[in-house]
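Intended use. Records such as the AAA family ATPase entry shown here are meant for training and evaluating sequence-to-structure methods. They are not intended to support clinical decisions.
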Amino acid sequence: MIRTLAVSGYRSLVDLTLELDRLTVVTGPNGSGKSSLYRALRLLAACGSGQVVGALAREGGLGSALWAGTSQAPGPQGRVALRLGFEGDGLGYAVDLGLPQLPGSSPFALDPEIKSETVWSGGPLRAGSVQAQRKGPHLRVRDASGAWRDDPRVLATYESIVDEVADPEGAPEVGLVRRTLRGWRFHDDVRTDAGAPARTPHVGTRTQVLGHDGADLAAALATIIDAGGADLLDAAVDDAFPGSRIRIDAAAGLFTLLLEQPGLRRPVTAAELSDGTLRYLVHVAALLSVRPAGLLVLDEPETGLHPDLASPLGRLVRRASERGQVLVVTHSRPLAEGLADDGAAHVRLTGGGGRETRVLDGREGALDGPAWAWPGR
């Protein structure tokens, strides 16, 4: 379980550390940094597949991701730096990205450079707990005896040790970081418009994890049923739409999602469902996934849903947190309060209007985050 998340130098997240629980709900007014926090989590997850540099470039480069508020905070030793990190279950990782050193005429001028990466074990970062450290193109790892060994590989500025270094001798923690980050899931790309892939029949195969575009929604729900989760699925659907039931038609190998509803003489196909109903079923497939996520991050899951669905959605989220860690970023007061009343950690953000993001305590004052130390470049 991820216990501490740290972000520095990303938009309004000038220097933010959060303590996460099994279930954490994040709230705050518009402009307080909720979306920035979500995007920072996506960037951190992208380190696990070597895509963080490309993801930042698609945002407009490092310059577009830096804080533009009234209290510009410099990076370490005055350098421009975007730093991301996490710690949990005796494992830690931090990455430091900076401005490129390529000539201005380079076609890759928007690509930031990975300046340093650190992997450590045993809780908060300490000098003796570092297991692998990359500075610039050079990597060193601690061997079984505890001594440092230089790795012969020379890393490019866009290559992450998490993705490129498969199994450095003596530092299995690098592989653990990779598996941890690749186990994080985000389902904000699923469309529910009239042309959404989730609305059309598709070739079905066992689908333990809902795809990023939702095209395999029917197969994901069928897999939940096949794996013994029919009762959970029926309960989640009935909770939101009383008397309704999901059915999957698998004629000729094509899977079609059908919703049986009281008062209707025939089931309704996915193509006929309202956007809100389809979106809720996407949440059902994601939260009841046969293969639980290491960390499931939901960004404003209430969007497009009727307010009456806040309570059923909250019960679905709580059930999912019994199988894996869940973080919910939301504007919905009923959803946030319902989750907090049931024991979820509640993180309240403040900021906006040129002010950096801060975490509020119960008295509306700034709250100090958990202990965190950034590695040097």
